[in-house]
Every structure is written in structure tokens, then in C-alpha cells.
Amino acid sequence: MIATVRGNIASSWLVESSITRRAMLALLPASLAAQTTVRSTKGKPLPVVGEFFRFSDPITENPVVRLTNTGSASFLPAPANHFISVKERFLLFSSDRSGKLAPFQVDLRSGVLRQIGETSNLLAKSLCLDPKERVLYLIDDGQLKEIELGNRKSRTRTERVTSFSLSAGGLFVIRDSKLEFWNSDGPTPIADSVGSECWSRPGGDGCLFQREIAEKMREFWYTAGNGRSVMLAAGRIADPFWSPDGESILFLRDVPTANVMLSEIHEVLVTGGAERCVSATSQFASFAPNGNASVFVGASRSKAQPTVGLQLRTPQREMVLCEHHASHPENVTPVFSPDSRRVYFQSDHQGKPAIYSVNVELLVEPVAAAAA
Predict the structure, then answer these.
(1) Which band of pLDDT confidence, cut at 50, 70 and 90, is reported for residue 284?
(2) Cβ contacts of 105 within 8 Å, gap of 6 or more
(3) What is the pLDDT of residue 5?
(4) Residues with Cβ < 8 Å from 30, sequence gap 6 or more?
(5) pLDDT per residue over 66-108, tens digit each?
(6) Is the pLDDT of residue 34 over 70?
(7) Burial level of 60, CB count in 10 A (0-12/13-18/19+)?
(8) Mean per-residue pLDDT for 198-219?
(9) Bigger pLDDT: 24 vs 243
(10) Contacts of 315 (CB under 8 A, 6+ apart)
(11) What is the pTM of this model?
(12) Average model confidence (pLDDT) for the chain?
């Protein structure tokens, strides 16, 4: 069942994109508002270990937690990657706090940080957990590496890699502008002239990949692994995500108008059919769906309202969570936790890039995280 906004506020809480926390509480049922007030004023204190810092957003009054300090740069992995563990309550990120970029893990309960391994030229967005959350995959100086979280042992799978994506039967790898499928039998060539990213199809053996055709212009292609590829979308498009059932992809499309460049969330089936608009947005520069694609989170590129907001798929309404004020809104990359209880994003508005968190469990129904 599609997750819905909690309570009976689906048609009212999103009407005003600048709604404050105080106004939001006034719209909630009394029992739920009371719960919210208790959590806000009498909630558990933040851990004293680590770098967690709580503050109130100046626009919405929502509590925001900065997870990493601004004395060093910290970066989230690509939004489509698996880097948040609900079961063990940790988040993976990259940081230059040790002198150069390296993978780190933060305990979301205690705030304790630990470095997972040594890297020489880490691709920050490449960090990705295996389904059992025991192994970290990453790209370091073009090498695809595996690091066991328990003992931190590392090994190199292959070289000259620009992107990879884990699948049920192995992994897809882009090497030398070619898409390959790797399993116990070794690599199998899939497609040539591939761009810099790929995304395996959930529950299947296919893969989505992109080709860059000009500045800010790209194509999304799908291959079932049989040597045949089909183009699904082209133009000013970005941030593709598979639908939960693997039957379609969701992505952002820039739509030019006479006065401003609009941003819309679009969807297209991999089996063919016309591309359709799912929802207009407040100029989202980056976005991500929750676990069942019923709610989206996005970062606006509007200079007047540089915010992170929630957007309900039905009805198409939006609510501001907090400001981001990032110098490059496309790098905010907000993402839901696997259970949809929190939103994580990054911003450099308080100094160097840092990672932030906002609790949304009173606004969005939790989604059952996939079993490892």
C-alpha cells in the first residue's frame, strides 16, 4: 500500500511551501500534535560523543541535526546507492578530515565516527554497501575495491572503473567506456560508448546507463543484458531512480519556459510507452523518492528559496523542511533513509560541506526496509 502523509493533513499541510513548524502543529490532530511537542521539547538529548549539532531551521522551525563538523569536508554517496543501515543504525560518507578523502562510518545513535579504510584518490559518490551490509564497495583511483566492515580488510576487484552497480547475480561495471557484467565466471561485455554512471534493475538482470551528448544533456539507456539496448529518455535530464517494482524509471527533466527553467519529475516504462510528467517541482536541482515512490524529497535551486522540501505524489503538493543555502544546489542530493523516517542531505552553507539530517516520521508513513 502506498505510504501516505500521517494523519488527515494530506490536503492541508502541503498547501503553503513556507509553512512553519508552529503552523504545521496547528494542523495536526491533537494527539499527534501533542506527540510532536513532547518529542521537540522533551526528546532524548543528542549524544555527547561525536559531532552532532542540533539547531532550529529559521524558516520552518524544524529541528535539523548537523552530523559532521564544518572544519573538514564531508560528502554523501550517490543517492541511489545503499549507504544507510537501518538495522545497525549507521551511515557511510567520505571526508578529508584525515588529510585526503577516505571512507567513514558514523553511528547514528552515539555519533561515534570511525575511518573504514585508507584510500589515495577516492570517488566520494561511489560508496555502496552490499545487501547484507557487511562489505563496502568503492572506487579508489579507478580501482573497484571491497572493504569488509568488520575487519577492514580490502581487496581490488578490477581497475579502470568509472562506475558500478550491485545486482542480485553480480555487479555491473563501467570500464573504459564499456558496460560489463561481472559474476563468478568473470566479465561479460554488455554495451559500448557508455557514459559515467549505471544503475542495475531491482529484482532483475538488466541495467540502466547514461550517455552524455552535450553539456547538461544526456540520454538514459536500458539493456536487459542480451546485447540489445533501448533509449528511454534524452535531453536536460538527471537523477534517475528505479521504481520499486523495476518497471519504470523516475528522473528530473528541466523544462524551459519564457521566464524560468522549470523542473519536473518524469517517469517512463522500460517496456516502452510515452514519457509522462509525475509532478512539477519548485525548481528541484536534485531529488530522490522514498521506498515506495509515494513521496519525493528535493533541493530547490531557487536563489530566493534555497530549501529542501517534501513533495507528495498524490496530490501534487509540496512542503518545505528546511533551508540548504548550498552554493551548488545540485550537490545537496537529499535522500530518505530506507525506512523513510529521516532525510539526509549535504550543504556547505555553514562552511565546508557537511551532512545534515531532518526527522520526517511524523509527516511520512514509515516504509519497511528491504531485508538483508
Answers:
(1) very high
(2) 90, 91, 92, 113, 114, 116, 149
(3) 44
(4) none
(5) 999 999 999 999 999 999 999 999 999 999 999 999 999 999 9
(6) no
(7) buried
(8) 92
(9) 243
(10) 10, 11, 14
(11) 0.86
(12) 87
d(CA 182, CA 131) in angstroms, rounded, equals 16
Give the DSSP letter string of 337-362.
Answer: -TTSSEEEEEE-TTSS-EEEEEE-TT
Burial class (CB in 10 A: 0-12, 13-18, 19+), 180: buried
Residues contacting residue 278 through CB under 8 Å, at least 6 positions apart: 250, 264, 265, 266, 267, 313
- Residue 209: which of 365, 371, 26, 80 has the closest Cα? 80
List Cβ neighbours of 66 (8 Å cut-off, separation of 6 or more).
Answer: 51, 52, 53, 54, 55, 350, 354, 355, 356
61: which 3 cell numbers?
522551525
Burial 298-309 (b: 16+ CB within 10 A, else e): bbbbeeeebbbb
DSSP 320-342: EEEE---SSGGG---EE-TTSSE
Tell me how long the chain is. Answer: 372
Could you give the CA distance from residue 155 to residue 142 in angstroms, rounded to a whole number? 13
Other Cβ atoms less than 10 A from the Cβ of 159: the count is: 12
What is the amino acid identity at position 324?
Answer: H
Please report the DSSP string for 158-202 in residue order.
ESSEEEEEEETTEEEEEETTEEEEEETTEEEEEESS--S-EEEPT
> Is the torsion defined by CA of 96, 99, 102, 108 positive or negative?
negative
